[in-house]
Write a structure and sequence with these properties.
174 residues, mainly alpha, rod-shaped
Length: 174
């Protein structure tokens, strides 16, 4: 329950409140974008299984007969060997985390033409979809900051009106 202290802190810290509001308002807008990202990963996972799955499994089977690097052997067997591993592999490539080791194993198994698959996945997955997520979050932050400024201005105006009314009452009493 210590994590909930952040929300308690948000009551007193105005900028944190703006950030939390922006994230919450962005969630509704991101549901379709996340669906597009999952669909993109699904399409590229199935494409990778069809294009590279058998060759990578054959490479792992050939290397299994003699002394070899077993981490590389396990990696080549599991890249596009089944659907769940293919989905994880496509997500890793989209997130640009250790994608070069997957690329080098795929290139070793099928040749240099696999670069077109990796380039398409990086461009579509990373540069388009993930950058749209960042754009939505930033847009939500700008909207939340504008709402916060508007709310602050309304409170200030109400305070000024109350102060003017009190001043008028004081002058009447004198």
């Amino acid at each position: 329950f210590r994590l909930l202290r952040v929300f308690k802190l948000a009551r007193s810290w105005r900028n944190l409140r703006v950030v939390l509001r922006s994230l919450l308002s962005s969630l509704a807008q991101m549901q379709y974008l996340v669906l597009i990202l999952v669909l993109t990963i699904f399409i590229f996972a199935v494409m990778g299984m069809q294009l590279f799955g058998q060759q990578l499994t054959a490479l792992a089977d050939e290397a299994g007969g003699g002394p070899t690097d077993y981490s590389k052997l396990d990696l080549s067997r599991n890249i596009f060997g089944n659907f769940s591993n293919a989905m994880v592999t496509a997500f890793v490539i989209v997130s640009v985390e250790n994608w070069n080791s997957y690329y080098s194993l795929t290139q070793e198994a099928v040749g240099g033409w696999c670069a077109s698959y990796y380039i398409m996945l990086l461009i579509v997955g990373n540069y388009l979809v993930l950058n749209l997520v960042v754009a939505i979050v930033i847009g939500g932050y700008v909207d939340a900051a504008e709402q916060q400024e508007k709310h602050t201005a309304e409170i200030q105006a109400a305070t000024d009106i109350q102060a003017a009314a009190r001043g008028a009452q004081v002058r009447k009493m004198e």
